[in-house]
DNA sequence: CTATGTAAACAAC
DNA sequence: GTTGTTTACATAG
């Protein structure tokens, strides 16, 4: 309000639109889809599944054995093609029946089972995106599938890795990422999906500035039954605009959303904005979108529609669901509860961060979605001789795994790393590669994973089939200044390694226009034809918050990414995952990005605030954007993307600490995630779930040498890690775990009593 | 000082 | 009017 005298004049900013090329595919996208949230066709499919689930039958092929050392715990081997949801339902029922005395915890692992095809990737990816969004959505049991984010369970095969996004709502609507199995929602009770689902959209109230004012506000509140959120209507959500924007964008399958849809999503999920907030909140949303580098604007091919996306490197794929669970079981989430402080709290950060440890109470009312299950992390030895065995199983994305593991363990050593802020440094300043800044955090990371890796991007675009590389190549135009520059590679150093997204790019110092880069990199974009727009140089200069960069643009950008080897280079983030699932690559990265989501104190993680704090990292702001592929030193893995995004979030949700810390036995093997990745044993490829054989994928590892890191040896041949889920019927939780499977030949001692006869479960292994 | 929120001036459509 | 960008300022921590 204040009119500040100081207000600078702004001269024309915009630049002409880019030429758009249309992508054929895109077309559909172009349109803003609104959130119609509700949606889509997928239902039919879903229903089927659901139906099944209800039946609770265990599919054929399921094998259950008692865990040798854990009481009331059974190991359930699920064929890839089995309907997980139904299995979980059945197990839940079984566990409930047993109560505390009988088996009430189940470790679910994929046994590949049906050899069949790799699970197909879900429909999802494919191109359709927008248009299709329909995809398979599975709907969950949850209450409202509708719109928003629903995470659904996935069908068969999906165990681990996939993220399915199903999203119902197309872009607008949200889909969360799902972490497939991990999603608790399956259990029904927890559904957090869209808070309230919204419905309605607002009529948009009109102008921003008008006030709705309170007066009207309250009126609408829903009946209170639900308590939670309703109450919350009048309360401001504890999330920052940045966080809410991320939730909104991440709720869509494509991870992109038009401004209007963002408004709508927020209104739908946070009634406060619809009813109570001053109209100026929309201005704030826009402000945040422009301000934070993590938000990248892309235009549709035709140039008509602008979509806001989250730079893959920075995207933690946070969704409302992931972050918290409503206190009230029944009610939809209600983040809103909290107080209405004036300020929304720092929100996520804190909240998100959540370590499970934290007292819930402290955090506003939200609870973490996933309970930790430490105990489950017990390594399981696999008798089988071959290392591969589990192929079907999930590959755990490293990161994920790491995170999983670490979660509990972590605490021991580790530190929590914090996500560096994103340095969005914005353009200008890019720290030199060397720039030292990287600092601290990295260190941590260094070892482990770099959580930050950009990796993630993944999914988004999967839609576009194929092209992984393409995108890279594809030039996207940047709007602005021609800067585009592709970054030259910076040589930089590895240092960056760890940093978070930003880091990745570390070298990339070139900050340049952030956005520009982003465009480049983000997978999505690649895919799509979108252009990215965004910042122009101008910004760089500017001192605006965001910009902060310190350095002048290095100029170079790290473009390398692309240039380089195809596989490798691609920024992790970018990879569009063709199908995400497929991507086997281990990705460590994602985690980082988020900072492991939770781990990082929220702050960082969060959105990282894009706002650059200037000081923070030297990294260039863009760094993340660019995400230098391999380059980043340690990050190498980044290239790997996680197979699924899902994990990322998942992990986050867990609030795992750093990878490195993980206590699990298995872990010890790897010092860092990287190691894991590197290590062969994992067959990443084999991921059953992934649709694609990895073969295609490039695995990151090779290419980049880690920077300085010593790479560690890979896992022993006889061991491998696989991801599994732990269903605890005592508390209705479903969590991912990383299993250490030992093959014969290993040291016996290690094995210990807990060996499980995997052969029983997974004949195929043999 | 940082992160965030808010208001506002402008620009381009 | 909408969308996007950028400043300026306020404020909590």
Automatic annotation (TrEMBL):
<keyword id="KW-0131">Cell cycle</keyword>
<protein>
    <recommendedName>
        <fullName>Forkhead box protein M1</fullName>
    </recommendedName>
</protein>
<dbReference type="GO" id="GO:0003700">
    <property type="term" value="F:DNA-binding transcription factor activity"/>
</dbReference>
<keyword id="KW-0010">Activator</keyword>
<dbReference type="InterPro" id="IPR001766">
    <property type="entry name" value="Fork_head_dom"/>
</dbReference>
<dbReference type="InterPro" id="IPR036388">
    <property type="entry name" value="WH-like_DNA-bd_sf"/>
</dbReference>
<feature type="compositionally biased region" description="Basic and acidic residues">
    <location>
        <begin position="336"/>
        <end position="348"/>
    </location>
</feature>
<keyword id="KW-0805">Transcription regulation</keyword>
<dbReference type="InterPro" id="IPR047516">
    <property type="entry name" value="FH_FOXM1"/>
</dbReference>
<dbReference type="InterPro" id="IPR036390">
    <property type="entry name" value="WH_DNA-bd_sf"/>
</dbReference>
<feature type="region of interest" description="Disordered">
    <location>
        <begin position="109"/>
        <end position="151"/>
    </location>
</feature>
<dbReference type="GO" id="GO:0000977">
    <property type="term" value="F:RNA polymerase II transcription regulatory region sequence-specific DNA binding"/>
</dbReference>
<keyword id="KW-0804">Transcription</keyword>
<dbReference type="InterPro" id="IPR042839">
    <property type="entry name" value="FOXM1"/>
</dbReference>
<dbReference type="Pfam" id="PF00250">
    <property type="entry name" value="Forkhead"/>
</dbReference>
<keyword id="KW-0238">DNA-binding</keyword>
<feature type="region of interest" description="Disordered">
    <location>
        <begin position="204"/>
        <end position="233"/>
    </location>
</feature>
<feature type="region of interest" description="Disordered">
    <location>
        <begin position="483"/>
        <end position="522"/>
    </location>
</feature>
<feature type="domain" description="Fork-head">
    <location>
        <begin position="236"/>
        <end position="329"/>
    </location>
</feature>
<feature type="DNA-binding region" description="Fork-head">
    <location>
        <begin position="236"/>
        <end position="329"/>
    </location>
</feature>
<dbReference type="InterPro" id="IPR018122">
    <property type="entry name" value="TF_fork_head_CS_1"/>
</dbReference>
<dbReference type="GO" id="GO:0006357">
    <property type="term" value="P:regulation of transcription by RNA polymerase II"/>
</dbReference>
<feature type="compositionally biased region" description="Basic and acidic residues">
    <location>
        <begin position="204"/>
        <end position="223"/>
    </location>
</feature>
<feature type="region of interest" description="Disordered">
    <location>
        <begin position="1"/>
        <end position="50"/>
    </location>
</feature>
<dbReference type="GO" id="GO:0000086">
    <property type="term" value="P:G2/M transition of mitotic cell cycle"/>
</dbReference>
<keyword id="KW-0539">Nucleus</keyword>
<keyword id="KW-0234">DNA repair</keyword>
<dbReference type="InterPro" id="IPR030456">
    <property type="entry name" value="TF_fork_head_CS_2"/>
</dbReference>
<feature type="region of interest" description="Disordered">
    <location>
        <begin position="561"/>
        <end position="580"/>
    </location>
</feature>
<keyword id="KW-0227">DNA damage</keyword>
<dbReference type="GO" id="GO:0042127">
    <property type="term" value="P:regulation of cell population proliferation"/>
</dbReference>
<comment type="function">
    <text>Transcription factor regulating the expression of cell cycle genes essential for DNA replication and mitosis. Plays a role in the control of cell proliferation. Also plays a role in DNA break repair, participating in the DNA damage checkpoint response. Promotes transcription of PHB2.</text>
</comment>
<dbReference type="GO" id="GO:0005634">
    <property type="term" value="C:nucleus"/>
</dbReference>
<feature type="region of interest" description="Disordered">
    <location>
        <begin position="328"/>
        <end position="348"/>
    </location>
</feature>
<dbReference type="GO" id="GO:0006281">
    <property type="term" value="P:DNA repair"/>
</dbReference>
């Amino acid at each position: 309000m204040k009119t500040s005298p100081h207000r600078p004049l702004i001269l024309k900013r915009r630049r002409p639109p880019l030429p758009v090329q249309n992508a054929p595919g895109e077309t559909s996208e172009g349109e803003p889809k609104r959130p119609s949230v509700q949606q889509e066709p997928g239902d039919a499919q879903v229903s089927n599944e659901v139906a099944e689930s209800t039946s609770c039958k265990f599919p054929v092929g399921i094998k259950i054995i008692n865990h040798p050392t854990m009481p009331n715990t059974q190991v359930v081997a699920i064929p890839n093609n089995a309907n997980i949801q139904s299995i979980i339902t059945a197990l839940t029922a079984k566990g409930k029946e047993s109560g505390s005395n009988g088996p009430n915890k189940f470790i679910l692992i994929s046994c590949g089972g049906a050899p069949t095809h790799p699970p197909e990737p879900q429909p999802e990816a494919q191109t359709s995106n927008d248009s299709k969004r329909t995809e398979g959505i599975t709907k969950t049991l949850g209450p409202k599938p509708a719109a928003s984010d629903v995470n659904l369970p996935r069908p068969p095969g999906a165990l681990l890795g996939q993220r399915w996004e199903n999203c119902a709502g197309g872009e607008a609507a949200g889909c969360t990422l799902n972490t497939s199995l991990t999603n608790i929602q399956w259990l029904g009770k927890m559904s957090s999906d869209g808070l309230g689902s919204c419905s309605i959209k607002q009529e948009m109230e009109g102008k921003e500035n008008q006030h709705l004012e309170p007066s009207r506000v309250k009126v609408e509140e829903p009946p209170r039954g639900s308590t939670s959120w309703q109450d919350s209507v009048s309360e401001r959500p504890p999330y920052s605009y940045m966080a809410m924007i991320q939730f909104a964008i991440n709720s869509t399958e494509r991870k992109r959303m038009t401004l209007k849809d963002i408004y709508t999503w927020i209104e739908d999920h946070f009634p406060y904005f619809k009813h109570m907030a001053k109209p100026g909140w929309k201005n704030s949303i826009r402000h945040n979108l422009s301000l934070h580098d993590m938000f990248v604007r892309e235009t549709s091919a035709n140039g008509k529609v602008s979509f806001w996306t989250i730079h893959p490197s920075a995207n933690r794929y946070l969704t409302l669901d992931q972050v918290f669970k409503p206190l009230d079981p029944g009610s939809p989430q209600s983040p809103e509860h909290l107080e209405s402080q004036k300020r929304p709290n720092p929100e996520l950060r804190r909240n998100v961060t959540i370590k499970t440890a934290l007292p819930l109470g402290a955090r506003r009312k939200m609870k973490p979605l996933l309970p930790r299950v430490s105990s489950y992390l017990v390594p399981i030895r696999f008798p089988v001789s071959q290392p591969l065995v589990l192929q079907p199983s999930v590959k755990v994305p490293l990161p994920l795994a790491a995170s999983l593991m670490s979660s509990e363990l972590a605490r021991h050593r580790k530190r929590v790393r914090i996500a560096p802020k994103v340095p969005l440094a914005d353009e200008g300043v890019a720290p030199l590669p060397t720039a030292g800044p990287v600092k601290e955090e990295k260190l941590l990371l260094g070892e482990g994973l770099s959580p930050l890796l950009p990796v993630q991007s993944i999914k988004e675009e999967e839609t576009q089939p194929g092209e992984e590389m393409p995108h890279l190549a594809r030039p996207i135009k940047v709007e602005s200044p021609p800067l585009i520059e592709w970054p030259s590679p910076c040589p930089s150093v590895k240092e960056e390694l760890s940093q978070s997204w930003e880091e990745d790019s570390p070298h990339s110092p070139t900050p340049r226009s952030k956005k520009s880069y982003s465009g480049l990199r983000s997978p999505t974009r690649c895919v799509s034809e979108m252009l990215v727009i965004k910042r122009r140089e101008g910004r760089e200069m500017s001192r605006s918050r965001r910009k902060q960069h310190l350095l002048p643009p290095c100029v170079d950008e790290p473009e390398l990414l692309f240039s380089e080897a195809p596989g490798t280079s691609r920024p992790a983030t970018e990879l569009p995952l063709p199908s995400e699932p497929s991507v086997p690559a281990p990705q460590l990265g994602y985690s980082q990005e988020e900072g492991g989501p939770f781990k990082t104190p929220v702050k960082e993680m969060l959105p990282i605030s894009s706002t650059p704090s200037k000081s923070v990292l030297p990294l260039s702001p863009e760094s993340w954007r660019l995400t230098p592929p391999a380059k980043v030193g340690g990050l190498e893995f980044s290239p790997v993307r996680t197979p699924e995004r899902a994990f990322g979030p998942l992990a986050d949700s867990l609030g795992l600490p750093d990878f490195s810390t993980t206590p699990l036995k298995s872990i010890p093997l790897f010092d860092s995630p990287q190691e894991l990745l590197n290590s062969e044993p994992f067959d990443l490829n084999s991921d059953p779930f992934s649709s694609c054989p990895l073969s295609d994928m490039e695995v990151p590892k090779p290419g980049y040498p880690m920077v300085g890191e010593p790479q560690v040896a890979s896992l022993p041949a006889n061991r491998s890690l696989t991801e599994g889920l732990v269903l605890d019927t005592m508390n209705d939780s479903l969590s991912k775990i990383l299993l250490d499977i030992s093959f014969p030949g290993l040291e016996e001692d290690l094995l210990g009593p807990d060996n499980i006869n995997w052969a029983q479960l997974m004949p195929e292994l043999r």
